[in-house]
Amino acid sequence: MLLVLVVSCMHSFAQSMEKQTMIDRNGTTSFFSVAPLENIVAVNNQVLAAINLQKGTVAVSMLMRGFRFKKTLMEEHFNENYVESDKYPKATFQGTIKDFTLLPFDQNGSFEAVVEGEVSLHGVTQPLSTEVQFTLTDKFVQASTTFELVVADFEIKIPQLVVNNIAKKVEVQSRFNFSKKK
Amino acid sequence: MSRNTIYGFLLLLAMVLIGVGLYLYNKPRPSMEQQSAAYTVKAMDWIEEYTADENAANQKYLGNVIEVEGEIQEVQMEKTPMLILTGNGMNSVQCVFPEGYSFDPEVKPEASITVKGMCNGMLLDIILTECMIVSSVPEEK
């Protein structure tokens, strides 16, 4: 009887340790935009993300200069003309998991949840709500999501000359892997 | 001037313009080897400078080639080849190498190293991309 009590105490202790903030320093965020000349794809593999499974909060931060394009020229235009990376070096997201207490974050498995919050980019903050696929195992918590952003919402100016070559909306994909080991 | 000469000239001009356009469009990424560092820093001092005033540090370093000297904490090969330089426990320097880069065997934790790369700014770690190794000293101290 006592043994059962001790074991269950240790178990809940281990669980509460797991429920602290977990960090991924090498998350991936990419964006995709359909263009007549060539589709534009850019990937950032140094995205910082934190998730707190006690409070159900999420925070993501990335450096705009971390996006790699296929063409150097696109990268230069992106940093210098569009998002003005030197003036606004970061893009961030802060949000909470909707209905957090009702979701099975205490067991292994896969499920979808809605994360609501605010995204800041190019000095502008906009609300964002997105569906996130969570996968939990003994070793890690994985989160991935896809959503669309409207370029004009963030006061990113596209010159008239190329306005038809750049989509009004871009598709953003993020994937994070939070390791449980620490 | 005959009409043919004018057409010939226009054709030549168009070809040159297309050529220049294509060259610019496909311009290769400048290799780190050809670029000299704007600043040379020590990993620990650099982290201290960045955490003290991130905006000022960004103005100085962002988008510039930086040579950083430090001790390797971790070698990662998962998504992209990467070295983490020892910092203050919370913050460190992430040196991201081009895809397909492979490290020599002496590049391992606790070795001293000098890396050159482009400064992208700081999250928890200062991030350098397009890195190359300038010199490495195996397990000093």
TrEMBL record, chain B:
Keywords: Membrane, Transmembrane, Transmembrane helix. The chain crosses the membrane at residues 6-25. It comes from the Bacteria. It holds the Pfam family tRNA_anti-like. InterPro entries: Protein_unknown_function_OB. This is tRNA_anti-like. It comes from Rapidithrix thailandica.
